[in-house]
Amino acid sequence: MNSHVAEGMMPSPAHTPKTNGRGKANGRGKAKLNKVELLKRKKSPLSLIHDIYRWADEGFDSIPPEYYDLFKWHGFFYRKQTPGYFMLRMRISNGVLNSTQLRAVAELSRDFGRGVGDFTTRQNIQLRWITVESMPPIIEKLQSVGLGSEQTGMDNFRNVTGCPLTGLARHELLETRQLTTATALSLLGPEFENIPRKFNISINGCRLDCTHAQSNDIGLTPAIGHVGSRPAPGFNVVVGGHMGSRNPHLAIPLDMFVRPSQVTALCRAILTVFRDNGSRAVRGKARLWYLIDEWGIDKFRDEVTKALGERMPAAGTCQLYRHPDPLEQDHVGVHPQIQEGLSYVGMVAPTGRVTADQLFDLAGLADRYGNREIRLTNDQNVIIPNVPDERVDALLEEPLLEAWSPSPSGVMRGLVTCTGIDHCHFALNDTKGISLAIARKLEERLPDRDKVVRLNVSGCVHACGRHRLSTIGLEATRLRQDGKVIDGFNIFEGGRLGEDARLGVEVHRKATIEETTELLAEAIASRYKSDEVPSAVPA
């Protein structure tokens, strides 16, 4: 084997667009690329796998710091909060995995990750405390059970999401499990290793819009269009959604209808246009939205059509529910499947934080009560499907379901949080710990189980907790009180998706933790038309 290749010293990524002064790929002018783009031109990110194996033998100190970011192409994220350690993010298309795969993840958490992990808002699992020495056995263990972590961070397409109940639920127009998997497999590899920024894809045949299509760069939602003169099921398309930064945007309609057989080709075409034309100058303005904003949606559609090689019909008739039932949209609880005699049990894993022991327990429950399958949701929760109806009561008595309730309070049911300051240097406070404490206090005052309180919490403006999409959103901040700097939140209200979609707006700035709890209690009570706010629970 060529020694340069073996050590990952390829001079550039497989696809290196020409650039003009703004970093755009049209070949005019002088390139002014951001630091990440220059790094990608210096070294192919995917070729770093050879170096990872070498550095695993030589130790962390042998890694040039400039290459820390390139580890993300292989699913390993260097964390400044935990020097010498990485986070591992896996790829689990549509959030579907089996008990053998989950046990392998649990073993990795136990053996290499201090027994802790997280369910994410993209139907995924992340582990912590990973060393470079442990990376080769982790990679090989994942591969041995049909999982992987390739291209899950930085300038790559992220986990392709879909309804976690695909193939099981009465709300579904089209099953998407094969589509999400096929699309992910089609996009992996050198062809799309060098796009300008991160890229989120949602392929959802569920009428409940449980994958939040308008928050994605590509969002496919169920629709009825026409093939010739015949009505046919397929998908409408929205593009350009992104939630991070101070300038988030909801995706807008592409006015295009695609059949299931065209989904993967469409995603490839859109990514090709983005790869070849997206800005590579200022990273804060490099998401797909900014290309669409510059060109206009008509030109963008024309360029996608050229890349696709055929013109798609105009959008079909939307099949999303106008007002989805919140008690069904999150897939929490016990519900019948379309398969007679079977039910699914959706459980809330508070804030998504999990332990290796809980993952082992979950795999065992899927074996004993279901068909060995586990499904992850976009709200950091988990589902055991295919439970015979006569076995449901026994499952509900299992100890794990005391911690992960299928019938939690409305406050706990709707809680979604980002990682927090323990493992992210962008976060301004312990979002998971503080949010859980606030939710515990709120549920004592507002214990209703039949009203879902959407409370999304982010540790910074990057909005990994999707706080601008939620009925109530919190964004961590710091404030000064009595000469001390303390934790607090900016409070947002009114976010929602659908026909009248809008981002939440800031209604209170720099509230203390105590003030946040009181303001949320008032907002929740007002929303549900309570006569009065229940009295405070002592801290």
Report on this structure.
The chain is an alpha+beta fold. The chain has 16 helices and 20 strands. Helix 4 runs antiparallel to helix 11 and helix 6 packs parallel to helix 7. The N and C termini lie far apart (64 Å).
Write the layout of secondary structure elements.
Blueprint: H1 3-6, H2 35-42, H3 48-58, E1 76-78, E2 86-89, E3 96-98, H4 99-112, E4 116-119, E5 125-130, H5 135-144, H6 177-187, E6 201-203, E7 218-227, E8 230-239, E9 252-258, H7 263-277, H8 288-295, H9 297-308, E10 317-318, H10 326-329, E11 333-336, E12 342-347, E13 353-355, H11 356-369, E14 373-376, E15 382-388, H12 392-396, H13 400-403, H14 410-413, E16 415-417, H15 431-445, E17 455-458, E18 472-481, E19 484-493, E20 505-512, H16 513-527
Parallel strand pairs: 6-7, 16-17, 17-18
Antiparallel strand pairs: 1-2, 2-5, 3-14, 4-5, 4-13, 7-8, 7-10, 8-9, 11-12, 12-15, 14-15, 18-19, 19-20
Brief summary:
This protein has 539 residues and is of the alpha+beta class.
What percent of residues adopt helix (DSSP H or I)?
25-40%
Classify the beta-strand content into a percent band. Answer: 15-25%
Counted beta strands? 20
- Placed side by side, the strands forming the largest sheet appear as 1-2-5-4-13
Distance between the termini: 64 Å
Radius of gyration, CA atoms, in whole angstroms: 23 Å
- Number of helices, where a helix is a run of at least 4 consecutive DSSP H or I residues: 16
| Main β-sheet description | 5 strands, antiparallel
Question: What spatial form do the alpha-carbon principal axes imply?
Answer: globular
Uncertain residue ranges = 1-14, 19-29, 530-539
